[in-house]
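Lay summary. Proteins are chains of building blocks that fold into shapes, and those shapes determine what they do. In this project we predict the shape from the chain. Here is one chain we studied, written as its sequence of building blocks.
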Amino acid sequence: MKTVLGISLLGLVLVLVGRSFGQGHFRITYTPRTPEAAGVTLDGRVFNDAENDVLDVWVTAEGLDTSGKVLATGITFVILIPRRGSATFVAKLPVAEGIDRFRLAVTSYRDEPAVQKPVQAP
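And here is the predicted shape, written in a compact code that computers can read:
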């Protein structure tokens, strides 16, 4: 049974380099690593397309079966993503038989207020 899971996840890794879309002004790309006994690790990058920095960003990764049912969930934290910038992350999901694909999304973040430049007197 473990061999079948390992082979199917390895096949998934070989053909899947994913792209998910987060909320609003976020984009997420990821690549699964080779599955291990402890689970699957996703190496990713989250892009902030907004005009403000964002802080305390939580990215949720879900392992889905062919019908879209969530079989495993992992959550990771990114401290800061600069405006129009990106940051890397690593998400870990536990072992779950039947994972066909992944879905990633930004599930929480905090906007950094825009800093206003002082107006110089004429």
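What the prediction tells us: The longest strand covers residues 70-81.
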